Amino acid sequence: MSHSAPLPASWDQVVRTSYLPGVDPQELWTNVTSMGGVNLELLPYMRMTLPRELRRDPSIRHVPLNSSLGKSWIFLGGLLPIDFDDIVIAEREEGRRFLERSTTSCTKVWQHERIVEPVPGGAQLTDRLSYLLRPHMRPVRAPFHRAMGALFTHRHRKVRRHYSERVFRTGVEGDTHA
Question: Where are the alpha helices (DSSP H) in 22-85?
């Protein structure tokens, strides 16, 4: 399902975009496509385990497309298992974009597109989540949508904070040695 095509009425979507001044797009790509980087974004609300295929090389750089990488367990607060994500990378443009098309116990389809683009003076990160809830989740569609919106807002806030603190620390260190 292309991001330019309208979603069917039974699907929901969350989109978040962040501008990151002074950030190298390739460095951002490396960080936001690693499981360590993903977990830094999710904490303290949740964390994910590495699926089987990412245990040898925890990046998506060499994973086969359209093939299950195995289940990644999702832990609420980092402790309580609440869901799984059977991860499948459907598309990948190394250094720029990936499209994950997976299933979870809550969603029949979980489609997460992440794009890193160079922009004047830095980088831009966009997450586009489109999902189709399973029938048992449809009664909680509205709260689930709000929770996904809040989760991706949190993720972007953590990425912005990480890079703003890093740029600030670098600037302070540079000033003290000048």
Answer: 25-32, 35-42
Are the C-beta atoms of 148 and 14 separated by less than 8 Å? yes
Structural contact between residues 16 and 44, judged by C-beta atoms closer than 8 angstroms = no
> Please, which residues have CB within 8 angstroms of residue 81's CB and are 6 or more apart in sequence?
73, 74, 75
Taking Cα atoms as reference points, which of 99, 76, 79 lies closest to residue 88?
99
For residue 78, count other CB atoms closer than 10 A to its CB: 13
- DSSP code of 7? P
Residue 142 pairs in a beta bridge with none
C-alpha–C-alpha distance, residues 90 and 10, integer Å: 22
User: Residue with structure tokens 């309580």?
Assistant: 80
Does residue 90 carry a pLDDT above 50? yes
Question: Is residue 48 within 8 Å of residue 35, measured between CB atoms?
Answer: yes
Determine the average pLDDT of the residues in 61-81: 93
Mean pLDDT to the nearest integer, 149-162? 97
67: left (phi over 0), alpha (psi -120 to 50) or beta: beta
| Tokens 């499981």 -> residue | 35
- The half-sphere exposure of 88 on its side-chain side, counting CA atoms within 13 A, is 12
Phi/psi of residue 176, nearest 5 degrees: -75, -20
